[in-house]
Write a structure and sequence with these properties.
The structure is a homotrimer of 291-residue chains. Chain A is α/β, with parallel strands linked by helices. Chain A is built from twelve helices and nine strands. The first copy, chain A, has a single domain, classed as UDP-N-acetylmuramoyl-L-alanine:D-glutamate ligase (3-Layer(aba) Sandwich), CATH 3.40.1190.20. In chain A, helix 5 links the parallel strand 3 and strand 4. The first copy, chain A, is globular and about 45 Å long. The relative contact order of chain A is 0.16. The N terminus of chain A is likely disordered. Chains A and B meet through helix 3, strand 2, helix 4 and helix 11 of A and helix 6 and helix 11 of B.
């Protein structure tokens, strides 16, 4: 709740928080249509999370189809979670088309650092498609920034974790990388960082139990795409709002858990909480500071 | 509830309604095995919805596999929601085989009108595989009938909506198209139309909140395939029964929603309601007229 | 609960049961990372079931990606439920690599017997990759053992069912096949059999309603892979523990069902029950005998 923020930010808290709520409202008002090239593991949850937040999903990963499909959308969400030769070509075709139309493009580099194909595909997309937003765990983002990584499957390496101790260093890292690739960078974990070259949101929403559900990261990437599409003038705030939303939904969903419930029910309750989120709840529940 | 129907139909309501319940019962008694070539977004819900209604699902979209698989099934559900070069070939192989065996074939032309590939693939299937049933939203069906369309992603264009005002015109349109392609046509939306060349069911079951869940249309297509397979002598009634079932399940599912529930829980409750549906509930809850 | 077991086994029940709980605990302690090449129908449930049991999932089916991915994992789960030309190549590449690294490999021959491609693919994997564990329904396993089969889609042929009447014969069959292919064989159905060449667990956990949910078998295969990875010295006990776990989760999940719930909610409750399972509950709830 801004506990670690500078005085200047704290003084502006009220306006800032209203900006988060305004980002949410813009999505609900404009129903952005998002083209998703995403993995088949979490794709259903991605679609329902997009609908829950007020967006509209369409999925297509066939090179012959994606040019047309991305053309009628407002944003493109590229997730390499189960990439293959065909879908990589589709990412290139759709990415190029979306770029030329000025659409918002988000990259979720799932597993970058865990295989050569994932690392090189993600790096190629960063260099050629030039996404507006990149969201991943710390190992994936470090892999993109440094060219190699130690991603443990699709989870971050424990040695990479963002902690209170290394927070200053990590904030510098993410701002520098954001400036270098001219994108909003979102690193999610126990502490989330959302930065462009100038500011970095440090976000402390969420629950550790969210890591026991597959796909909360994928859902967030899709939702963040919708938020950035609906708020093109302030993408870093929009992505931060989406990150706060997802974490807060995780908190609200957890508060509704009953005796005997587990990760499958928790999955439903988180999407339900996104569905029911309103601006006021988001403004009051967001736990963040700006650095 | 037949409020707008002609006198002749109203007089026959009781027998008619029992026909809907008989269609349901035939599925539960015969457990039709349905081969699905469908999208990876909603495929899990499609499988569970088929099981819930009393059918049995199998999925295969590899050209080398589908000839054998469709041969042991009773019906084929073709859904182009995430079509690709391979699955399009599989649709052709399976469609041809299923046609030659006299199996029921349903086409769900997801996104026809939204891309050239989707439009041409759907039209090719209509012309060569000659499906027994086509189910889509109004924009998709208009695209098939007219050759071009304005499908908004995978949702219907608002300008196309079936309303009380244009209902007479739409009933004529769907009957004519059904006669032209010699298939049962199901157009689903706020008002659903199910027609062959002679009769048109106008169905008013369902809830607007169903559009906030991905895949209720895909589920319906799979369930309608099972209903048509189990009721080969009266396919238009069988598909109408499936449409009433899905809408009624949406109503029952909604009635079980609790404080804090959202679209993810609603998704579960709809499939649960299909699972628990019996003939009596369907007969009494179906809201339709025949024109 | 060992009602049909020999006296010797009954006397050892307490130690045996603690072995099952120890297998569970080993998974929770070591968090085995499992590479899954699996079908897109049930993949999300497979991932959540793996997380629920204490494992960690990664999915990849692109031949260019799987060598690297399987290298960082502890086990490989191969499921041919929606096999295609690309994923079959991936199974070969990953299988060969996993074999050379001494990783645990499980094969789930979904639909073997229902198509030539499925039968030959499953047989080729058995012969070349030489899996440590094979889990399927009785028709699929008979197909592998005898070269032909009568699998009804993805369900077992009723004529094949394991019953109290043919149990002795089936126990011999599964032990012999296990010895022949030098693998743990798990046949699941109303009565489950888990055998190596020496012993056969006869397991009577579970609920018939589990067959009304898609994917409980796929989930079990993934969980059994994790169990075998975490318990490399006693794979047959580990796989038996996983089979007991899944059946018991089905029982616990069913006990939590409420008025109006159906197969979709049941799906969630089963995964929830896996998530909440502890060693004591498993040890006390497992219903098995050893032959």
């Amino acid at each position: 709740m801004g506990l670690f923020g500078k005085e200047k930010e704290n003084a502006a808290v009220s306006t800032e928080r209203k900006a988060l709520g305004a980002c949410l409202q813009a999505v609900r008002t404009t129903t952005p249509l998002i083209h998703n090239i995403t993995n088949y593991v979490t794709v259903n949850d991605v679609a329902n999370a997009l609908l829950a937040c007020g967006g509209s999903p369409i999925m297509s990963d066939e090179p012959m189809d994606v040019y047309d499909i991305t053309s009628i959308c407002g944003g493109l969400n590229i997730n390499i979670g189960t990439l293959n030769e065909r879908s990589i070509e589709a990412m290139t075709v759709a990415g190029s088309r979306a770029r030329s139309l000025g659409h918002v493009i988000l990259l979720d580099p799932v597993g970058a650092g865990a295989s050569t194909l994932r690392t090189t595909t993600a790096q190629t997309i960063v260099n050629t498609v030039r996404p507006d937003v990149i969201r991943g765990n710390i190992s994936e983002i470090k892999t993109l920034a440094k060219g190699t990584g130690t991603t443990k499957g699709v989870d971050a390496d424990a040695a990479d974790t963002v902690t209170e101790e290394n927070l200053d260093e990590m904030v510098s890292f993410v701002k520098n990388f954001a400036a270098k690739v001219n994108a909003v960078i979102a690193i999610t974990g126990a502490i989330d960082l959302v930065a462009d070259g100038n500011v970095c949101y440090v976000i402390r929403n969420g629950r550790p139990e969210m890591s026991k559900i597959t796909g909360t990261g994928c859902q967030l990437s899709a939702v963040a795409t919708a938020y950035a599409v609906a708020n093109p003038e302030n993408k870093v705030d929009a992505v931060a709002a989406a990150v706060c939303l997802m974490g807060l939904a995780g908190e609200i969903g957890w508060s509704r858990m009953q005796e005997g419930d587990g990760n499958s029910t928790y999955r439903n309750r988180i999407i339900d909480a996104i569905f029911n989120m309103d601006s006021k709840t988001l403004e009051e529940g967001a736990k963040y500071e700006i650095r």
